[in-house]
């Protein structure tokens, strides 16, 4: 007959937090406001391969999911940076090839990384900055850049 062996490890002491009663939350405002966990941008671009390379090689995003046409050509690509995504989609030019992109739009991205070092990495690729790293009027440290299609991105150091 087999016997159960006793563990040689000492038992873990229970923490004080596990002895506290659970906190009750105040009731939510009705109707409830929208609460998001993440948000992603989607840009329609003129040259998908160029944009994928730019987000990867200039800014440091990594490729994620690929979306292909029925014929197997690349239709779109998810570009990832930490928990954030930018989706890039190839323009089908149904609205014309001369359509302006990126006007009236700016993406704000925050990071704990050193903004000056990120900006220096962008400049080292030969890509110009729209704004050098500097203090904003409200006290943040930031720089700005535009992608190949004119979508504007400002990076802020947390």
How would you describe what is shown here?
With 158 residues, this protein is an alpha/beta fold. The protein has a domain at 39-93 and 103-157: 2,3-Dihydroxybiphenyl 1,2-Dioxygenase, domain 1 (Roll), CATH 3.10.180.10. Helices cover 16% and strands 32% of the residues. It contains three helices and eight strands; from the N terminus they run H-E-H-E-E-E-E-H-E-E-E. The chain has a four-stranded mixed beta sheet with strand order 1-4-3-2, with helices on one face. It has a four-stranded mixed beta sheet with strand order 5-8-7-6, covered by helices on one side. A hairpin with a 2-residue loop joins strand 3 (74-81) and strand 4. The longest helix is centred in the middle third of the chain and has 12 residues, at 48-59. The model has no long low-confidence stretch (mean pLDDT 89).
What structural class do you assign from the helix and strand content? alpha/beta
CA(first)-CA(last) distance: 63 Å
Alpha-carbon Rg, integer: 24 Å
User: Based on DSSP secondary structure assignment, what is the total number of beta strands?
Assistant: 8
Largest sheet: 4 strands, mixed
Query: Which blocks of ≥5 consecutive residues have pLDDT under 50?
Result: none
Work out the helicity level. Answer: 10-25%
User: Helices and strands, in N-to-C order?
Assistant: HEHEEEEHEEE
């Amino acid at each position: 007959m087999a016997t159960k062996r006793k563990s040689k490890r000492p038992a873990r002491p229970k923490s004080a937090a596990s002895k506290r009663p659970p906190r009750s939350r105040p009731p939510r405002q009705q109707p409830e406001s929208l609460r998001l966990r993440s948000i992603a941008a989607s840009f329609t671009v003129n040259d998908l391969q160029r944009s994928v390379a730019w987000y990867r090689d200039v800014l440091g995003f990594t490729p994620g999911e690929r979306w292909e046409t029925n014929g197997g050509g690349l239709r779109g690509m998810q570009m990832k940076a930490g928990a954030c995504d930018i989706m890039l989609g190839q323009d089908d030019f149904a609205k014309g090839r001369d359509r302006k992109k990126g006007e009236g739009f700016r993406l704000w991205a925050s990071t704990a990384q050193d903004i000056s070092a990120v900006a220096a990495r962008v400049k080292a690729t030969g890509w110009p900055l729209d704004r050098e790293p500097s203090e904003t009027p409200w006290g943040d440290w930031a720089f700005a850049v535009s992608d190949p299609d004119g979508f504007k991105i400002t990076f802020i150091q947390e």
